[in-house]
Amino acid sequence: MQRLLEGYSRFRNEVFPHHSSLFQQLAQGQKPEIALITCSDSRVMPEMIFQCEPGQIFPIRNAGNLVPPPTESQSGVAASVEYAVRALQVADIVVVGHSGCGAMKEILERAHVKDLPLVHSWLHHAGPSAKWLSALFQDAGISDEKKLSLLTQANVMTQLGHLAQHASVAEGILKGTLRLHGWVYDIATGEILALDNESGSFGPLALDLHQNELKIA
Ligand SMILES: [Zn+2]
To answer: Which residues bind Zn(2+) (predicted)?
Structure first.
């Protein structure tokens, strides 16, 4: 906690004065262009990865970067998505998974079913593909690391499918005002792999926006 208090002191005394006009402007309202759905993992820091200032990213974070389908509106994610699309009119939503995800690991290993009942209940939003993949992996003869990586990618695809079912998102896609993207961030290398909708596989993130656009039917 002391770390936090010292950080706050530095922010107030050293950082804030240099950016006071930005904060004055932000106090009037926010207009982020991007909503990022990421894991709560402390190692994933979107503002650092994408070099953004306050007000540029609308973050929606939870264990496993999950987006429950619209039928489960109590999760809070649905409300945040609706707000991002209809009130803030973001142009892009990115679902960002990451390497070494504890939530994905728990789906594979089920090591804490008894200790973490709420986590397990939440993780069912990873969808049937997660269970299917986990079962398939049992005798597949591939490394634990590879299993985790494949499940993390599959989960991003599943969550994009859920996202597209939300009324506000479907509307935005239909009107051509909203684009969806699926990425996986590697903590050890800092690299991002992006889902290529054509091939259904993940490859290095292209720096041209249009190459990363997913066509969700
Ligand atoms: Zn995670």
So the answer is: 39, 41, 98, 101
**Which residues are close to ligand 1, an ion, with C-beta < 5 A?**
39, 41, 101, 103
Q: Which residues of 123-141 are buried (b: 16+ CB within 10 A; e: fewer)?
A: bebbbeebeebbeebeeee
Token representation of residue 162? 């859920």
Has residue 83 got a pLDDT over 50? yes
Say which CATH number the domain at 204 has.
3.40.1050.10
- Report if residue 217 sits inside a domain: no
Domain containing 7 equals 1-29
Centroid of ligand 1 to alpha carbon of 132 (angstroms): 20
From the annotation, which residues make up the binding site for Zn(2+)?
Answer: 39, 41, 98, 101
List active site positions. 39, 41, 43, 98, 101
Q: What is residue 129's predicted lDDT score, i.e. its pLDDT?
A: 74
pLDDT in tens, 125-155: 998 777 777 777 777 788 889 989 999 999 9
